[in-house]
Structures are given as C-alpha cells and as structure tokens.
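Working notes for the structural subgroup meeting. M.R. asked for a predicted model of this chain before we commit to crystallization trials. I am recording the input and output together here so anyone reviewing the notebook later can reproduce the run.

Input as submitted:
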Amino acid sequence: SRASSSSRRDMDMTLFSFFFISISLTLTALVESAGRGVNNNNNGGLGASFIFGDSLVDAGNNNYLPTLSRANMKPNGIDFKPSGGNPTGRFTNGRTIGDIVGEELGSANYAIPFLAPNATGKALLAGVNYASGGGGIMNATGRIFVNRLGMDVQVDFFNTTRKQFDDLLGKDKAKEYISKKSIFSITIGANDFLNNYLFPLLSVGTRFTQTPDNFIDDMLDHLRDQLTRLYNLDARKFVIGNVGPIGCIPYQKTINQLKEDECVDLANKLANQYNIRLKSLLEELNKKLPGAMFVHANVYDLVMELITNYKQYGFISATKACCGNGGQFAGIIPCGPTSSMCEERDKYVFWDPYHPSEAANVIIAKQLLYGDVKVISPVNLSKLRDM
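Returned structure, recorded in token form:
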C-alpha cells in the first residue's frame, strides 16, 4: 500500500467537502420510515439490543436532525424488505450489521431509532438505536456535517431510555432485563480519523499540537468514560468493534488515485494503532468492572479479508462503490438519486464510497455471531447472549 503526498490528499479532501455540501443541500428526502421489521426468528434469549455508533449502524436517527449526513433518499434501502425498498436512513442498500445480529439473536423487531416519533412504550423493549452518521468518540468529530450525535450524546440518550425502562417494567425487572438479557453494541471511531484528525479543514490546529499517539490517548480516555457511564446505568454485556481498514474504502482510494490493490497507508496505520490499544482497554475494563463482559470485535481483519479475497466470497468488486459517482472507484459523491448504481448489488463489497453492502454486512455479522477468538473475543455474540 502507498499514500499520495500530504498536500494532494489535503487538497482533494478539501474539494470533497465542497462537493459533498453542495450535493447534500440539493438532495431531497423521498421517503422517511422508521424501518422497523418484524422477525420470525424465535430463538429467544435476547432482551433489548442497544446500538451505539456511526453511519455503519445508524438506522435513521439522522433523518430527524438538520444535518448533511443523511441516507434517507433513494436508492439507499433498495433491498430493505420491511420498508418495501424505500430508504429508512440506513447507509446501505439493506440491513446493517446491527439489524442482522439482532435478527439472528432472536429479537422480534429492529432496534428503533431513539429520535423516531414512535420510540416510546413497549416499542423500546426490543431495543433502541442511538447511532448517528458522522458521529464519533470525540465531540468535535463530524462537525463538517453541521449536526450529528456523538458518543457522549448517545450515552445521554440512553440515560433517558434507562428511566423509561423503570417505568415500563419496574425498577427490579428493568435492571435484570438490561443487565442480564440485553446487549450493548458500539461501532465507532472511524469518523474520529476520517472526519476529524485527518480532515484538513477541521484538524489543522489539532495536528500541529497532537501527535497520533496523543489523539488516540484522548479517544481511548473518552471511550473509557463512555463505557463506564453505560456500566453505571446497568449495562453488562458489551461488544465493541474496532476501526476497519479505512484506507481501503472507495472514497480514500479514489481521492488518492490508487490502484485496485492499494490502500492509503496512513489511514490504515492510524486505525491499527488505535485498534491495538482498544483491545488493551477492553481487557482492562473486564478486570476493573465486576460482572461486565466486554467483547472485542475484530472488524478490521474481517473487512480486510473480504477486500483481499473477495472472489472467494462471491463478489466481483471490493474496490468500487456500487452506488456513487466520481473517479475510478465511484468514490467521490455519496449515493443518491443521481448516482450510478451497479446491477448486481450482492456482488459488491461496498455499497457506497464509505459503507459495506448488505451482502458484506451479512458475512461480517455471521462471523461476529458464530466466529472464533481470532475475530471475536473472548466469546462470540451467540455465546454472549446466553451468558
């Protein structure tokens, strides 16, 4: 792998921000839906699925924010059956990893977006999704999008939900339901690099004053506090995804004019640097917080495996966005009504310039559910549910 010069990367990313803002301001949301779907899987055992994170798992919260980071326009959601193929705010063509995991673990419904009007009463019992496109661990992350929910705000929102569970079930039953039957999944961190530390318009001051080590220190200190806050609100079963190979997404490959078999070295190095220390943090919390189980999901290696050996999984491309425009890998302009779209959506690892397709999400989710300690440790999610 190699990266283009810093000046070219900064210039191209600056141009991207203007492209993105201008395109986003002209797109109009065609259909808005909470996107909840009934599942006939009766495995049982899972109480609520509480989902925190960024656009990889956002199920529609950003639909209710004045933000430039939205996916509530066609053809997003074209393969999402519960909505009849209409967009729900998910940044993919179908289900997210969070949706698929919930289905497999026996949830009756998809976790409902916290900001959705119908996120009240018994609808909360299957779970709540707090994730937000553009969100990050750090509060400054994603401000180029104007509005987004960072991890601190997402934990604040769970505090509200926690009180609602007391009202729904009574204090004792609510505590048992949340601590023993529910799973808390956190998929966050990529934006802290892509739309914070590496983004030139936002990070000039930060990068002069903070080394990558210092910035990652801050990220992990914030995440430690956020996870501890959830623990203090009775969360006990956690799964935390590490940062994927962000240097290999179609956007990064396109703006840096890379070849198919190349990735942006700096972005991947930062991800790996963070990932090593994230695993240590989770080991620390497992020792420090009684009764908690923090599971480490090795998303980086799972996605890199798909990119490297995509043909073995039935894909025809692991470099080009199925839905997007601009450059060799359709990686400049996000997916929207004017985008070109591939014919075989299940044959592409990437749906748009940044996010996996549903087909890729299924493969990743199954590994998290049933895989070995190389990809999910110390236990996989099917075992975590039954603990």
